[in-house]
Q: What sequence folds into this?
């Protein structure tokens, strides 16, 4: 199965700062990578699909890039509601797999 | 509005069975692939299984293959997960998720807790 490694595990930033999250795949997933946001007690929410496409209703401050094995989720200017855990997921091969997550916390 | 409502979770002894249901409304259920995703307390997300919109294709995580069965009834707009031979490591919140063919639309339920314990 494809292993997704996210870094850093925790990112401590202040509102208004730029957040850069990384996801590396153990083999190429082409552009079949998604990003999710999860807040405590809530279901995950799709942010980005196919590496760079924002899902419906997702603010423009969220952007995704990359292809093959290296991907990045960027939050251009953190809003208070963006502090959460972020997961990447590949849909290139079965079984689908998730990364271990990056927690974006308020400094 | 779109709703996915899971049910059927609870406390079950190791080795026993449980069936989860996910009732969908507010979207064209028969057009969406449906997934089960689980999350143990304080841990990350783990994909469990998927079924195609017409029920003809199914895939499973290695950790549940041979023990869990995903199915759907498009006439009832309901997704199921039959879980047999349950283990302590199956303890988690189980989410159902509907995904459009282009992957751009995802609908998630609120989750149902399964606790496998003697």
A:
């Amino acid at each position: 199965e494809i292993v997704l490694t996210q870094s850093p595990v925790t990112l401590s930033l202040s509102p208004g700062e730029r957040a850069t999250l990384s996801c590396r795949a153990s083999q190429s997933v082409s552009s079949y990578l998604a990003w999710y946001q999860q807040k405590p007690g809530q279901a995950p929410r799709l942010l980005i699909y196919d590496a760079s496409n924002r899902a419906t209703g997702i603010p423009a401050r969220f952007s995704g890039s990359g292809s093959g094995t290296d991907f990045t989720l960027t939050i251009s200017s953190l809003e208070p509601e963006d502090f959460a855990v972020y997961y990447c997921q590949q849909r290139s091969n079965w079984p689908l797999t998730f990364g271990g997550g990056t927690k974006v916390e308020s400094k | 509005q779109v709703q996915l409502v899971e049910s059927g979770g609870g406390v079950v002894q190791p080795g026993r069975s449980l069936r989860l249901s996910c009732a969908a409304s507010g979207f064209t259920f028969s057009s969406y692939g449906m997934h089960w995703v689980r999350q143990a307390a304080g841990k990350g997300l783990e994909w469990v299984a998927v079924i195609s919109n017409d029920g003809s294709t199914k895939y499973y995580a290695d950790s549940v293959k041979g023990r869990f069965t995903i199915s759907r009834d498009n006439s009832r707009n309901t997704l199921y997960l039959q879980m047999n031979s349950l283990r302590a490591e199956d303890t988690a919140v189980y989410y159902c998720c509907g995904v459009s063919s282009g992957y751009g639309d995802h609908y998630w339920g609120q989750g149902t807790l399964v606790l496998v314990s003697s």
